[in-house]
Amino acid sequence: MPPSPVWVPREELLTFDEMARIVRIMASMSVEKVKITGGEPLLRRDIDKLVELLARVSGVGSLTMTTNGYYLEEFAWRLRKAGLNGVTISIHSLKEERYEKIVGRAGVFEKVLRGIEEAKKAEFNPLKINVVITRGCNDDEILDFVELSRRSGIIVRFIEYMPFDGNNPWERSRVVTGEEILAKIKTKYELVKRERSAGDTALNFVFADKAPGGVGIITSMSSPFCRDCDRIRITADGKLIPCLFSNDSYDLKSLIRSGATDEEIAEFIKSSFRKKFRGVEMLLNKDIENVRPMYTVGG
Question: pTM of the full predicted structure?
Fold first, then answer.
């Protein structure tokens, strides 16, 4: 996050009822997985009420959340009771001083760890940790994260450094590829690759010795999965975004508030999805700049 983020006025945000309506429409179009992201979703007042609304939508088989974990200690049980299935926590270092330097705030590391423990007790399934590996920053912690997975049973997903940093210019030289990450892991542990399904963002592995946990590798830069990407995002202020690597967006909120029918909204979603940008595959051979920062749209 930048030091001074721009806050969107509440009246410009989708209401929970509007969000639930969008999910109902998309579920009728065979969408089965819903993820609540951010920014930071646990900053939204009464977020457990949104979870409860979405959990009731027929056809949604997976309802999960990605969070920085700061408020999980307080919210884990409320979210589980409301119907949230799984949680992914973004944590980019297991070293307290380094972690707090990355997030730009002191005195938060132990609280995040307590939140992860509460999430384990609440028995979220799946329970994952996302870690972006950046050369010269945390690439010396790859095995530390693997050992955390084996010890705790939490799935750890390693993500290649992407050009979504809101504060610093992206540098291609800082990308640690999925191939490098796997090579490092295999110096100590034998992995068994799981079959990839169409639309999966990660290559997933389990441990050959049957240890708990597992490893995912998201190779957005070195081997992008754009060709079968079936994801679509709705921002908190009602913009439909077919691709993270494009600045294209489509105003769904105005359509909803103009009195459009479910059928008209469904057709708008379909037509927007058909304009899906070819993502990072279009950008690999040119300078990457002006890509929307991740904190504005979530993972």
Answer: 0.91
